[in-house]
Design a protein that fits this description.
Helices cover 23% and strands 39% of the residues. It has 273 residues and is of the alpha+beta class. The protein is flat, with a radius of gyration of 50 Å.
């Protein structure tokens, strides 16, 4: 009797059945075992999700912050350098030219007319005035020349009730030069109730009406061949005391205590300083 060979029930690692006594089996049995048990195909495993390390984002943020800090630092240094250069240039101009503001003087004010009339029903109040002024402009500088545009003149009470207006034509004031003007200021207008009350109260004062003169213009400064842009200035003269003229003869206002101050007027968008 011949011994029968049975296939093993344990799977093999190489996909073929392990046969005891393989050395004694024939080639046909080996081929049959390989065909009966084909190699197993294992499913491929997915790679686990690994989030990107956070240090890369932090490194980008740090680089952006460093760039912003560098830009701010250099901008600050540039501003400081420009400010120093401007200060040095201003000091040099001051030492070389010794600039001074122009001087204005109000020498006389003659009141030819100052009438405030009201209708019988008190519905309308009308103001009619006429003033003759004498002004002088002086340039105290040795190297600077002032070129003025036309002046706009406004005469008002200290309570800001405007009672006259006028103008002065454009002119140029050379070095160590004085210029005299005789402008005529007048008005003929209706006043509101509040302005009428304020003006009547001032006209009743025995010491006279306290007045102030305001002059607005633009000026260009020349230093040899160099010239600046036109800048606004305001000249304000206070300390004027006027009385209502009696009859046809004009009255003379007291101007001995008047002083005129010159201020720069800087305009930024909609605001003027």
């Amino acid at each position: 009797m011949t011994d029968r060979v049975y296939p093993s029930s344990k799977p093999t690692t190489n996909g073929a059945a392990a046969v005891p006594g393989a050395a004694t089996t024939t080639g046909t049995a080996a081929t049959t075992g390989t065909a009966a048990n084909p190699p197993s195909t294992k499913p491929q495993l997915r790679q686990p999700y690994r989030p990107k390390p956070q240090y890369q984002h932090r490194r980008h943020r740090r680089s952006n912050r460093n760039l912003c800090c560098c830009c701010c630092f250099w901008s600050f240094l540039i501003l400081i350098a420009l400010a120093l250069l401007a200060a040095i240039a201003g000091a040099a101009v001051y030492i070389l030219y010794r600039p001074h503001r122009p001087e204005f003087t109000l020498t006389s004010v003659r009141i030819a007319k100052l009438n405030l009339t009201t209708t019988p029903d008190f519905s309308t109040s009308h103001l009619a005035t006429l003033f003759n002024l004498t002004l002088s402009s002086k340039n105290p500088n040795n190297h600077l020349t002032f070129s003025y545009q036309p002046f706009n003149l406004f005469l008002s009470t200290t309570r800001d009730v405007q009672i006259a207006n006028g103008s002065i034509p454009a002119f140029t004031s050379g070095t160590k030069n004085s210029t005299f003007f005789r402008p005529v200021l007048s008005t003929s207008q209706d006043l509101d109730v509040e302005s009428v009350k304020s003006l009547r109260s001032d006209l009743k004062k025995q010491s006279g009406v306290a007045l102030k003169l305001q002059m607005d213009t633009k000026v260009k400064v020349s230093m040899g061949k160099l010239s600046t842009k036109k800048v606004g200035i305001r000249v304000t003269c206070q300390g004027i005391k006027g009385v209502v003229p009696k009859g046809k003869s004009p009255s003379v206002a007291a101007v001995s205590n008047s002083k005129c101050k010159v201020d720069l007027r800087i305009r930024i968008w909609k605001w003027t300083f």
